Fold this sequence. Notes:
heterodimer, A: mainly alpha, 10 helices, elongated, B: alpha/beta, 5-stranded parallel beta sheet, 3-stranded antiparallel beta sheet, 7 helices, globular, Ribosomal_uS2_CS (chain B), mitochondrion (chain B), Ribosomal_uS2_bac/mit/plastid (chain B)
Amino acid sequence: MxxxxxxxxxxxxxxxxxxISLSLSPEYRATGLLKSGAMKPQDKPLxxxxxxAFPPKYEPCxxxxxxxxxxxxxxxxxxVIRAKFYKRYGSYGTAxxxxxxxxxxxxxxxVKEYEHLQAKGSVPxxxxxxxxxxxxxxxxxxxxxxxxPVKTESSLEQExxxxxxxxQLTTIPNIKQVKLEKLSIAEIFKQSQGNESN
Amino acid sequence: xxxxxxHRGIVSSSNPVQSAVEPLEKLQESSSDAITEQMAKSLxxxxxxxVAELFTVEDLFNARVHLGHREGSLNDHMxxxxxxxxxxxxxxxxxxxxxxLREALNFTAHIAFRGGIILFVGRIPQHQVMIENTxxxxxxxxxxRYWQGGVLTNSTIQFGSVIRLPDLIIFLHTMNNVIYExxxxxxxxxxxxxxxxxxxxxxxxxxxxxxxxxxDDSAASISLFCNLFKAAILRGKEKRKELLGVH
Lengths: 198, 247
């Protein structure tokens, strides 16, 4: 049926057939073929009844016009605070899109502190940024690196902070830092040799 | 597609699309009546296979289905499915996606219930193997390689024998490797084959019978869609075995 139509001669006839086949939904054409007798009832397509019972929401025609929908821009009130943060301090750390339960970013924590202080009302507008930064420092995140604690030789903790400043800035507050022991290769060798002798 | 011509035990009230001129032989009347009745019954329920239980909007969000391309590459026909743009990155309206996805899954399940041949099509190399495996796992077919022009429209000569064409084509990617639409979309429309397709912000949903607006570039989202379609098909086939007594 359909194959025969395609093989029929005449370029114009074929072009017209293509135009019809694409501008009308398959159900409309199948119904037409069945009614006119070109398609016998036993040749009815498998999907015909299903399509009749569950027609698609939008009729599939190639010349269906695109509705005039203006795309709205997504902005939140916190974006103002975020803009100020990124302008002043740049982008700290990265976020993984695949994380199912991502840890809060530095910017999120900053926004939380800022809004908290704003709601309190005790701090004037122009000092809110500074106060929020100070609040983060209390949690152990130093946005202004010059204010970070100075390195002393006695404390191992401060050495770690210096070597891994990025980790320092993206730590979650109130979680204990697990300190890894510093192993030397010689020690590892000694241990493995000890195991072998056992 | 050339193999598997009649081994699928075609027992249905209507015959599949064929390229040959001769119709199938007439079926036995007694068995077909009960089957016809059962098939008509299944259409009365709005969600006979309970495909709405297969996913939630949160699942779509976690699989990053809502992430579209940028405003510059937006196809005007897709603007109605967009929730908004976040600094020119387009975000899909997942409520609309959920509705259309349920429609698509319901249709797929019904076609599988009636013993229809389903063809998975997708032309992006990263997901080729995933799509082919999905088709294998649900006992259907996949075509993720170079599409020769006459596969649907010139099948008798292409394959050299009478061909039963697919009854449903599921597009995991509607675009080819380059900026063109897949040829099969247009050809399926010509051959009266219904299509289901995942349409991204740069795709044209007009010729697809049941479009599903969503992200088609992340492995997570394609994996979710593959699993959903597979589940719908398997549910349809399970009911087919149970109610119609056919494999």
